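Backbone geometry tokens:
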Amino acid sequence: MVAAHTKSLTIRINSMGTGPNDTPHLFGAPNQPAVLSGSVLFENNYEAKGNDISIKYAAVASVYWNTESSSSTTNSDGTTSSSPTSSSPTSHSHRDQKVYDERAFMMTIAHTKPGKISPGKYCTAINFTIDPSWPSSSIGVRRDCWMTYKVVATLHRKCPSRNVVRESTIWVFNTCLNRPGPNLPISLNRFNGTFDKVVPYICAIPSEALHFAQKVPVTFKAFPTLVYGEPMTVLSATVKLKQYTYLKAGIETRRDSRDVMNIAMNDGWPVPIPEQPWQRTMVVTLPTAPILTPTTHAECYIVTHKLKLIMQVMVGRGSKQELRIEMPVKITPPRPPGDLIPSFDLSRYLSCVNSL
């Protein structure tokens, strides 16, 4: 019995797990960069048609979006009007990219004659160190910006449309922090203010750098009023995490924002005592991918975040007012599988805030 003709071209990536769409996962940190390693394998048991096999690796940040505009003319009185020849808006596309790394090389294979590959097994190792300062893999909420790490292997044939192409997208998480110990240090980011010019307050979080899926304590502390002597009462409150995206393609720009976390904190607020300070600490759990994108600074797009405490308050017997506190934070990606999610020692944190 004659064996069936078989051939295969595969990319194998050494990873610590799988990410979105079962992509290989890699993790990098300043003290331990991620290494993209693996192999490209071609196997055939007959004289397969083909010339050379190329291998390409690229780390690229990209943006792409459309805008629509209507054709218009300027009238003699200075006003504008839509052109009668244009029945629908004109669409304009904007795109740009930043190439962080790009490599290309050929796999060594044997030929019986031009255009015919000798039966056998051919393997080429790949090994690239990923700079931990490069952006983490991401896809914008509106799919208008993304960072990709990709390996592409191509078996070239006489007719390009019949090329055999295999590609592997690798999901890279580059954190800005070294691998932490059991308890993270408390750097205590504090935000001071005076509400309505009469109520001094402090809002505090344990650090500016926060992780995916991390439990984060948020403390609000109110002091005695400067004039009336009457305390401030919290009627309702919400803790939000807002994500801001800035896209740039040449001279064109686009800004967008969305809430990626919204947690109501309406109950449990202390009953204030006149001329006495009071405080409350809330613990919120941050979301993770794909809802949340890491803080990113690429040349063509920027993603930033703010943690917000928004409260409806009343001073004495006054009317209801809104107190809004916005705290810039840096969201860094998760740790490798097996690592615990970094946590703050709540007792140490409370000891710090109690001394404020």
Summary: The first strand starts at residue 7 and ends at 13.
